[in-house]
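Hi everyone, sorry if this is the wrong subforum. Our group has a chain we'd like a structural model of before ordering constructs, and none of us has done structure prediction before. Sequence below.
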Amino acid sequence: MCHKFSNLKLTIKLVIFHLSTYILRLNKTFGGIKMKIYLSVFLLFFITNSYGQNDRLEFQTIYDRIFGPKCIQCHSGAFAPHEIDLTLYENLWKTSGHHGILKHGKKKLIVKGKPEKSIIYLEVESGRMPLIGERLSDEDITLLYDWIFAGAPEFSND
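Answer:
Right subforum, don't worry. Here is the predicted structure as tokens:
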């Protein structure tokens, strides 16, 4: 599995490094401590807001980026297919009595730390889910993989 999301992190770090190097060269040309302070604040703001917020491996991130926009139109409420309701974190750990999909082949919806044994990841990665709408982006599939691999935490400090 190619971790494109991890590659994105590396690319952002390299862009920030090259941008800061370029800015420091400009600073030598124009001088001034104020410019250094402004640029430092800008880079710190850019790193923490553009980079750090998007990669929090927690349920809310997965819900906001994947489950909410792509899954809950079908997988919510009492009549969700195969009783798989993705609206709450607690629901991810329930087993299905309907059609026995979660028990089939001893696979569970999510196996903490093992995306390759998690039905939700296998269905999304293969393109079988979502049934309605576009396939998930490679970045979102990688995010789901990384979240499950990290133990599918509810909060980022779990």
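For your construct planning: The chain has two domains: 4-55, 59-149. Residues 1-5, 47-54, 97-104 have pLDDT under 50 and may be disordered.
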